[in-house]
Design brief:
Elements (H helix, E strand, L loop, with lengths): L5 E7 L7 E7 L3 H5 L9 E3 L4 E5 L2 E9 L4 E9 L4 E9 L7 E8 L4 H7 L3 H16 L1
Parallel strand pairs: 1-7
Antiparallel strand pairs: 1-4, 2-3, 2-5, 5-6, 7-8
């Protein structure tokens, strides 16, 4: 088991008839690709809602794909060793009242520099994510 893996909870809070599939893809930085630090073709994997997955530290693109393959939303996830993250599909399709568009929220989010500095404050994020998980599963 990789004890340095980050954990990502994938949660669907969207209310409506639209169907989308979450997908995670390695984010290739041009400079790193030139140095052969990453494969030329990014790896991509479908995620399942209401699950927790382990990912290696690194930069990823997280997207929502419609049934026709169209990308509905996209966000970046920068994972640090032993980090905890949440990917949320949000929005409300409404026949009456306010509607909210389908969106993808990654928490915490930020650049690689921010994520690297956040690695030293893992307890801060872990406490907040435990509170978020407790809210959804209790």
């Amino acid at each position: 088991a990789n004890t340095d893996a980050a954990q990502v909870a994938v949660i669907d809070t969207y209310k409506g008839s639209a169907r989308a599939t979450p997908r995670i893809t390695t984010h290739i930085v041009a400079a790193a690709a030139a140095d052969n630090q990453h494969p030329a073709t990014p790896s991509s994997e479908e995620l399942r809602f209401d699950s927790v997955v382990a990912v290696d530290a690194g930069s990823y693109d997280v997207s929502l794909e419609a049934a026709d393959g169209h990308e509905e939303a996209k966000s970046q996830l920068v994972a640090v060793p032993r980090g905890s993250y949440v990917v949320l599909r949000t929005g409300v399709e409404s026949k009456q009242g306010q509607a909210y568009p389908e969106e993808l929220v990654v928490f915490p989010n930020g650049s690689a520099a921010v994520a690297n500095s956040a690695a030293t404050s893992g307890g801060f994020w872990s406490a907040r994510l435990r509170a978020l998980f407790a809210h959804f599963w209790h």
